[in-house]
What does this fold into?
Amino acid sequence: TFTDLDGRLLALKPDVTLSIAKTAQPAPSETLCYYYHENVYRPSAESHTFKEISQMGLEMLGAVGEAQVQQAVCLAARSLDALGAEWVLEVSHMGYLFGLFDALGVPDAARAKLLEKLREKNAHELRAAAGAAGLADAADTLCSVLNLCGSYADTLAKAAALCRNDAMRAAVAELKALAVPLEKAGGVIRLDMTLAGEMEYYNGLVFQGYLKALPRPLLKGGRYDLLMQKFTPGAGAIGFAVYLDELDRLSAPLPPVQKNSTDRVMLNVALPKGRLGDKVYNLLAGIGYGCPEDYNAIRYFLVKPSDVAIYVEHGAADVGIVGKDILTEASADVYELLDTGLGKCRMCVAAPADYKDDPSRPVRVATKFVNIAKSYYASMGRDIDIIKLNGSIELAPILGLSDVIVDIVETGTTLRENGLKVITEFMPISARFIANKASYQFKHAEMDTMLEKLRAELQNKEEAK
Ligand code: PRP
It folds into this structure.
């Protein structure tokens, strides 16, 4: 941001790092270190709408070697430690993933999708994305990266064993060099090879810091040499930002229901009310999680199906089970750990039997799933006018409100009864087990136990068919 002589705000910036990287211009072999405390204007993780966010950060630019990397990561750890709450620093390395992609011959066009699925810890869709990119043979190897998550030393040993080229070995060596200085940091340091930053931004070491009681990372950083080299050829850069607004939550009192009266770690589970909820509850009862509270240290709460992802993303629930339709529509930033296969249906475009597309004008689309419909038509480059409805979507084309609808189809009865037909099916849907990313850092043991039981139960059911 910048102000005029009276201190009035004249502009809003989405980012501070970029302007520091642009103006720093370090001389060869010089290392410049900056810190800042600024407001930035960007979509807030809380509301998903644009907001001024208070941010503090550190950047080291120019000659950046092992010593600077260690210094930056250790400062991030010290920043977390200074706040006096339990904390976790998650470390990863983009060079490891890019090295693996090179070794597996992953085409450039497929990389963003694979990174997205890795970041979601989404094994089933990672496998599907690998298949779609013509990499079915590499799917097992890609999925094995999902297991590279846990305590620093153990995970590093596993990551070292999977190395296939020099780029991967160099990444492991850099992570290994960090182990000793980080040991003294005080909190919990975890290695998670699925933690992938934005591809064009970070190219080496990346890290995120979490504080207990906060639903999102408080701190994010990493190496961004490629961005830096756009302004100063040959220079390197590493930095991190602390999202100060997130700290507001630390001072808010915990509601009584979220307080833990036992020593056991309590898992808060959001389940959808209604049809899907019944199926999900039966599944959980089948793995011995039917008896909440005292026995399993589980707390269930039932919410509107369309709200499950929101409760989990905001940390009011640690985990939840939610339809893929709702998860996609909400673009919730959560881990998608398992496809339960319950509530199977598909997202479709449907229209009256005699419908013909008129390419000379936008298609009028009625739907509850505005974001899904927009991104589907955007992927085809087709203009649309969206009409958002809240139910009984099938009436819209009958009454001339829209040309087509985008809706879920399960048995097809609703469409048949209303004289509509499916034009395209474009998204398979089923209920997914999701987790809050911050909760996962502190309660991963409990979540993994539940997940393993769910996996085993679903496999038994599949085999019994
Ligand atoms: C969904 C969808 C269709 C129906 C499709 O509605 O909007 O109306 O299910 O299922 P079918 O192919 O088996 O007929 P839902 O029951 O979820 O409730 P809603 O109408 O309140 O959205």
Q: What stands out?
A: The mean pLDDT is 92. The longest helix spans residues 437-464.
